[in-house]
Amino acid sequence: MTNIPETGRSTRVQTRLVVIQILVLSLLATLGGRLWYLQIRQGDEYAEEASGNHVQQVVQPATRGSILDARGVALADNETRLVVSASRTELLKMKDDGKAVLTKLAGVLGMKPQDVMDKVRLCDAKTPQPCWNGSPYQPIPVTDEATVKQALQIRERAEDFPGITAEPMAVRRYAAPGKSNTAQVLGYLSPVTDEELQKAQDTDSPYLRSDQVGRSGLERQYDKALRGKAGVTRYEVDNLGRVIGEAESDPGTPGSNLVTSIDARVQRVAEYELNEAMKAARKEMDRNTNRTYEADAGAVVVMEAKTGRVVAMASNPDYDPNAWVGGISAKDYKKLTGKESNYPLLNRATQGQAAPGSIFKVVSSAAAVEAGYDFDGNYDCSSAYNVGGQVFKNFESANEGMITIGRALELSCDTVFYRLAHEEWKKDGGMNPKDPNDYFYKAAHQFGLGAKTGIDLPNEVTGRVPDRQWKQDYWEANKDAWCKSGKKDGSYVEKIAYENCLEGNKMRAGDSINYSIGQGDTLVTPIQMATIYAAISNGGTMYDPTIGKAIVSPDGKTVREIEPTAHGKLPISKTTLAKMDEALAGVASRGTAAWRFAQVGWPQDKIPMHAKTGTAEVYGKQTTSWFATYTKDYSIVMTISQGGTGSGASGPAVRNIYDALYGVSDDGDVDPKKALLPKPQASLPKIKTDGTILSPKMPKDVVKELLPDEKASPDEEYAPVEEGGQPATTPNQNGENRDTRRHRRRGGARGARRGSRPVARGRSRRARA
Amino acid sequence: MTGNSFQVSGYGPEKAGWTRLFARDSMARRLDWPILLAAVALSLLGSLLVYSATRNRTELNQGDQYYFLTRHLLNTGIGLALMVGVVWLGHRALRTAVPVLYGASVFLILLVLTPLGSTINGAHSWIKLPGGFSLQPSEFVKITIILGMAMLLAARVDAGDRPYPDHRTVLQALGLATVPMLIVMLMPDLGSVMVMVIIVLGILLASGASNRWVFGLLGAGTAGALAVWQLGILDDYQIARFAAFANPALDPAGVGYNTNQARIAIGSGGLTGSGLFHGSQTTGRFVPEQQTDFVFTVAGEELGFLGAGLIIALLGVVLWRACKIARSTPDLYGTVVAAGIVAWFAFQTFENVGMTLGIMPVTGLPLPFVSYGGSSMFAVWMAVGLLQSITVQRPMSA
């Protein structure tokens, strides 16, 4: 111990001093080690925590872009509303979790305290609506309908309402111009979920906690463009939240505006006519079931024939999209999605599918020509077609003798197509197929059936072509159930199951025969049929249906036009197409749809109308009404589920839409001044230099404008309807396929009314049975 | 012109006096320069940290961003002067003054308990002086306890009567320490009491008192702590501090707030820190009491591991040299005084830095030299004076 000086002192003290020194050193080493651990080992975590500590983000939500119609009329835009919100984090800091404040707030807003508290509670598995399913750190809107007085009361006494804010905020508004609704096409918004937030975190368009996200329709399809980018200002704050500096900030950009090809006026007319047609069908007796028609759902599509752009698309039942704004209430939500709701959120034009019935015959005709049959050849339109003891009757068992395929289309003769399809089935090898040509099924695929049209709306369904592959797949999926329930001598259902179990994977003669007239397992959507009939009109090009026409940047400087794109050509030669076109014109002038057009004042010479009617059978349900039409400018397809016959249920509505488009009056005069849209809107609305888009004035209700006394005299509207004008026929109750030449209905009044009130434009056509 | 010549003439004698002081080269040469330089460096570093912590705290600095900086420097200057005074007088000479100093310091802490005293952060341990100054007498009591106990314990050993202090002497020394400790406990300033207990422990160890006393005191300390806990002498805030120490996640907005924010501040500093005056935690006032008890967090955040480590290293230099002084002093009086100071500085450093690092519970103890606070600054500089005096008066043969 050389460093211990000669102190003459005992070693006890010296030893203890060394102990003290070691102790002191180890204490210091402990501090150093801990410091290293905190700063070097865990430094990054703490750095992150520190930045979360002192950086406050203030989000300036981007104003969502508007959705405009083809002329610039806003279908969806924003309005400023006074939104009163409560901050949960602030409320929970209070002793009573903010109960007192919320009660006071309820008093100011004239609400029940319990309602206010329910609105700010968080949703979980046990909590029923209303509750908040957004972020707990985000101010929760209590109401977006505060009055200026209420907002002032809250803001002036801020100290009485800690955690409560009353601020003007841009809120989505579905303006329903001219009483058009367009609900399913527009879609709706709801707050971003935690999941989406995480998923989008590392993409180029991350969500913010406060974001509203498009959930369906155009709002979803064009969400990215419409949403814009929220601005984020990051402030450095001190421990009391006082701003002490500004950190890196992201400037926001408002969302772009979407110009659509929808014309709000035509949309309103389409919605109105669809609804009227369904209302009328519900008063009509179905001779098969001895009940009135259910008419539980329907859709109509108005499409520009040369571009595939959608001018109007209505789906019924519909709903008010404004129900979603500011958080949907429990009652509304149930009404829109519950079992009893009939699912009004579904867009029946793109998401509803049904057997097409006779409007499918254009596909069968093309297939027959492809298979080598002459379009102008002579085919037997007998009253029935017999296959192995099974009788396939013509509609109403009519016998028209030898006719061409064109005439078969006009008359909607079933037996001609039965025969052709059955012949082809036999050629393909019958029950033991050998390299089958399957012309009829190939044609369906070539017409775009069984596949999405590519419309710019989410969740489009494909429909179904029941070809061999499908039969095989379907059989494999269901054979166990069929084989279990099937009985050889059981009920009808059991017998079918028994047969299906045995040979459900095979294409049977009856399958092919039914298929040729659009019955059986075939499913199509209205938008598919509109695309096909538009293609027949434009010379054979199938365009992707589009609703979006252009995306206009908020400053109006960049306009990204959405050009029509084709996804295929109809598998028909030019000459055949011309013949088919003529035949379909014949349907309107002298065929199954003549009583809706040529016979009731349609100016066929000025505006050649082409149509095909369809009435599809659905097992256990009433028939589906289909009506597919086109002119050189538009194609309109309408369908009503459980609505009756094609021309019967849908005919008047489609005619009325055409009348409105072209300005056709009852006596067949064409008045361009009254026409809503005699030519498709080609140009985009005028965009001013400041980015605002000019729009024409809209009447309060387009229909009222067109038919001034429509609603004014309901008694007249419901005047008794006389039979007349059409050859009375009796419905065929056992027919495999019934077409549309049934006893006249709503439209039947036209003739009678026309004579007495030729001037009452439109009104007479709108007769109710 | 006359003024100028007057100034020159006035400056002359002062310079001469200064030179004279250093002309006694034996003294200047014998000073423990590492301690002095480390202490000066700590004080200056402290002034920067205190400035950083207070320059924009208008609610504290009365609108003058340099308020705390100038005062800290002033305190350091006064501290240096006190050190010089102590060296001048010498620790041996102070031995004779112990009864007076002890009496005065006990009187002052008693005064704190009267209405003259004022409460800061739950501890009633300040005396408000006119002019905005305040005095914390418990800081000075630490010195008088050291001096008093050293005087008692070393008296007969240094006289050559006995090799170690006998039981009676130890009992007397303990009695001397207990009186002010009880008073401080009544304030209640538990942090200071803990420092004093550690000082007493260090002194007993260094004095060579019987092991029984050392372990007895340890046992008594533990028992006392238990009693304090059980009898509910602790205030709620003190219990909460311990609870928060045991579980830092507890109530991060309440009692756990200090420790949590302190750790975030230090942890976010990383290796080199965010740079002086650029710490967001510091600028954002997230850490309370940052110029005093939590001054180390400023170093941690703004100077990083290097800067904060430097502070620990400088304190290490002071403690290391103090230990060396204790070991190399021939008389027990000097040894005991030095050991007492080591125990004091070491515990206060460990407790103060330890609480900011989350390894010790939060108590209101300043970091020697670095924390803002006059009384603490004066006391630690006087202690440095004592250490220097022990070095200076050590026989040259050592």
The largest β sheet of chain B comes out as: 3 strands, antiparallel
C-alpha end-to-end distance of chain B = 54 Å
Q: Whole-number average pLDDT of chain A?
A: 84
End-to-end gap of chain A: 122 Å
Which stretches of chain B are poorly predicted, pLDDT < 50 over at least 5 residues?
Answer: 1-14
Spatial extent as radius of gyration of chain B: 22 Å
What CATH architecture label of the largest domain in chain A applies?
Answer: 2-Layer Sandwich
Q: How many H/I helical runs of chain A?
A: 26
How much of the sequence lies in strands of chain A comes to 15-25%
Task: Output the structural class of chain B.
Answer: mainly alpha
Helix content of chain B: over 70%
Please work out how many helical segments of chain B DSSP would assign.
Answer: 16
- CATH domain class name of the largest domain in chain A: Alpha Beta
Pathway (chain B): Cell wall biogenesis; peptidoglycan biosynthesis
Protein name (chain B): peptidoglycan glycosyltransferase
Keywords (chain B): Cell shape, Membrane, Transmembrane, Transmembrane helix
Subcellular location (chain B): Membrane
Give structural notes.
The complex is a heterodimer of chains A (769) and B (398). Chain A has 769 residues and is α+β, with helices and mostly antiparallel strands. Chain A has four domains: 11-41; 56-260, Penicillin-binding protein 2a (Domain 2) (Alpha-Beta Complex), CATH 3.90.1310.10; 264-327 and 345-356 and 523-726 and 740-766, Beta-Lactamase; 373-436 and 466-516, no CATH class. Chain A has 26 helices and 25 strands. In chain A, strands 2, 3, 4, 5, 10, 20 and 21 form a seven-stranded mixed β-sheet that branches. In chain A, strand 24 (624-630) and strand 25 form a beta hairpin. Chain A is elongated. Chain A starts with 10 loop residues before the first helix and ends in a 13-residue tail after the last helix. Chain B is mainly alpha-helical and 398 residues long. Chain B has one domain (42-392). In chain B, a hairpin with a 5-residue loop joins strand 2 and strand 3 (134-135). In chain B, helix 14 packs antiparallel against helix 15 (332-356). Residues 1-14 of chain B have low confidence and may be disordered.
